[in-house]
Amino acid sequence: MHNQSISELGQALRDKKISSVELTQYFLDRIKRHASLNSFITVTEELALQQAQAADQLLASGQARALTGIPLAQKDIFCMNGVKTTCGSKMLDNFIAPYDATVIKQFNAAGAVTLGKLNMDEFAMGSSNETSFYGAVQNPWNTDTVPGGSSGGSAAAVAARLTPAASGTDTGGSIRQPAALCGITGLKPTYGRISRYGMIAYASSLDQGGPMARSAEDAALLLQVMAGFDEKDSTSADQPVPDYLAELNKPLQGLKIGLPQEFFTADLDSDIAAAVETAVAEYKKLGAEVKDVSLPNLKLAIPAYYVIASAECSANLSRFDGVRFGYRCDNPEDLTDLYTRSRGEAFGQEVKRRILMGTYALSAGYYDAYYLKAQKVRRLISNDFKQALSEVDVIMGPVSPSTAFAIGEKSGDPIQMYLSDIYTVAVNLAGLPGMSIPAGLVDNKPVGLHIIGDYFAEARLLNIAHQYQHVTDWHTQCPPGFE
Amino acid sequence: MALSADEVNKIAHLARLGIDEQDIEHYASDLNNILDLMTQMGELNTDDVQPMAHPLDQVQRLREDAVKEEDQRDHFQKIAPQTENGLYLVPKVID
To answer: Which residues contact A378 (CB under 8 A, 6 or more apart)?
Structure first.
């Protein structure tokens, strides 16, 4: 059952072969059995069974839609009314969200069932899920390795078949990199495509939610529900939402794929480069043409990203002050002590590092040298993508320079960790949509293929991913022990 | 242009972020490594480049100035560390 697609599960529900309550209980049991992966922070068992009962009534009355009665899990960055929403931090360990994020509202309206809230790097700052207050998540492919981050819980849970699909968020690669490391399909849509309302902010000009699933088709079903304009998000894109399923089967004849030479350097693991080449060769068989393109300023994406993300995080995280919600220190001497100690005691090391960095980058005398400079570099990187995407339909390449690394291997060296984001952060700076789809295994560890498209080309990306998944079976590979 | 421990203390104070004294050197060293990475941007001439604040260069939307939200003070204050008569309590600021 856990290997079935969302469409298949939906059909089984509508055909009354199984009830949503049974399906939900099945996945709740699976979550319990594999609790050692640590992919969930909160399992919302009671709520899930209530939602499943309500979904069964809708199904009985013939009012079911694509996601009605389908169990899903949400990254713990999305506020859910009445449910603990931690963002992976001690700061919000006691935070019961008083409202629903728009994404949660949309899933609820679609009749989906929420199994629980998924583990993540603290405030989405990390590339390994090791910065979570709730501990590291294990990669189901090799439990000594990281699942990637920050949506590491989402990727591990989907890969281990603990949930048919999940939500994630991507500020600098946080959907695509864990999707690659866990062998699942992840889509970061165009900036503004999915509402950020109720999605706890890290770097507001980069943050974007998106679906994480086992196939492009399942991801399309989730995106259909998640996408759309929201007046409660001031940077939401007021663009029509297309039918993401309609174009899945379009042939790829004549598709122009660009390969940026800057993606294929000595920093890239040669086995991963080979896997990407094999995937591109598969696309050629499907009728695609391949062309070299250039992203000359790619190298500066990491410094520009970490300046902008740190600066925006230092501003966003100032709301955690121990006054209105979240953690408060014991016996504060005065107001400054209350702020300083509450924040000092409840934020982890990586979050503190970025707040310090961002505060410095925005402070008087340094703003021009760091933040303004980074915004200018951001423009040039964005222009590079515009140029490349005027020559080709999509850009392909690796998602991560290596496969899943060992838990603890990079956690002591922030620079090493930051450098592993080289292929993903540039896409966020430009605000473009990007996908990671499974494209091979190296030493039994998954490799992702990165597909980057033009603004609002999500339907095209899903079509390109789906066509590949039609002729290959990497996306159906299951980590040993989870079959 | 290395940051000293003193400067890190100053930044931490600006951010109202408590850092244990024994960790300051460690943060200073991390921040200096990160700053080294960031100074790479200096290699690129950006004299006539327009800074990019929004990926789609979208401008701030305006809306009608009308009250739409209902008062949910009691609901929101249920999760506050300390409140009284609808007010958030903090240590005494004025003697």
So the answer is: A304, A308, A429, A430, B51, B52
